[in-house]
Amino acid sequence: MPIHKIKPKMPEAKPSLWTRDFILITFTNLLISAGSFLLIPVLPIYAKQVLKASKTEIGLIISVFTLSALILRPWVGVGLDALGRKPIYLIGLLMFGALLPFYAWFQTVVGLIVLRFLHGFAWGIATTGGSTVASDIVPPARRGEGIGYYGMSFTVAMALGPVLGLALIRLVDYNTLFYVVSGLVFGGLGVALWIKYPRFATTPWRNISITQASLYDARGIPASLVAMVCSGVYGGLISFVTLFTEEKNLKSGLQLLDSGALFFVAYAVGLTLVRPFAGRELDTRGPQRVIIGGLSMLILGIVALAASQHLGLFLGAAFVAGLGMGAILPTALTMVVNLVEPERRGVANSTFFTLVDIGVSIGTLGLGIVANYTSVTTMYYISGAIILIPLGYFWQIVLPDYHDKMNKQTMVN
Known about the structure:
Layout: H1 20-49, H2 55-83, H3 85-99, H4 102-105, H5 109-137, H6 143-171, H7 174-192, H8 212-215, H9 221-239, H10 241-248, H11 259-285, H12 288-306, H13 311-338, H14 345-373, H15 376-386, H16 388-412
Helix pairs in contact: 1-2, 1-5, 1-6, 1-7, 2-3, 2-5, 2-14, 3-5, 3-7, 5-14, 6-11, 6-13, 9-13, 9-14, 9-15, 9-16, 11-13, 12-13, 12-15, 12-16, 14-15
């Protein structure tokens, strides 16, 4: 009797992540994010020197940008899902680039505040749209890894943008700088035109029904709340780091990069290095170890930061805090996206980023009050203790809820 040898089953090949479209959407986000972060250190100087703005007015110029993005995000999510990704995303990029030259033309504080408010709308459209397109493009089996890599474009821009902005104002005048930033964004728009956008069923504008349920997706709220609290602490962390270095008398000894700038570099390095590993861990084993490990590192980094008496510990703490945030945010976003249908990813992304924006706004304000009545050092210690809340909440509520919803989704499919 002949013996039939059974060929061993070959392991399934990993779906490709670095496709043409994924590279294009990531590069687009790098360009527009670099343009946005480049303005962060420049605008306060511009407002003070050119417009003679007060500290309160400068704070309003900066914060109104986030406020307007926060207001618009839920509606952007509906538009992305109902009208399609491509038109909404490209409109956001066009608005973002087209408004930048007006920074050179508006010569009053009120005018700049209005412009920042409108610009925040464009930022809300562009970032929500880009994240949704990236979620569509990456293969589901590598979604955690893909969103982690996509998020690295924000990280690199966050590290290099402010440094580039401070360098440019030494070389060119403000008007030229605003045109350079506009060129970066329009470069991103040019790249985005080459993307092949995934197609889903769309709804004619007159048939769109705007209800409370259509503006957000409740399935992603538990994981988004973890990101919200961590983002609130992040807002307090970065907003007062310069005051902290003065409080502790931490000097870098470098002419071009002070200790505050080095903090952002170390923080961004931590964010960048952890994301690919966190994404692969999420895709293969789930979110448990990634989120718990990330929250633990964030607590350790913040407490070490508060205890810093010399530059080495200060930068090491920034690096560890970056590792923590780099693990938490993209993992939480991937969890949110995993729970919804493709045609609801726009709303899911807007739900996540709306709560993150709320966290940053409340955290910056609330922790600023704490720092004002105590010290930045005390505020940092309190921030570390606050992260214990999402740690317990994730373990007791979010993780069981996520597993339950994913199991039900598997049974339906």
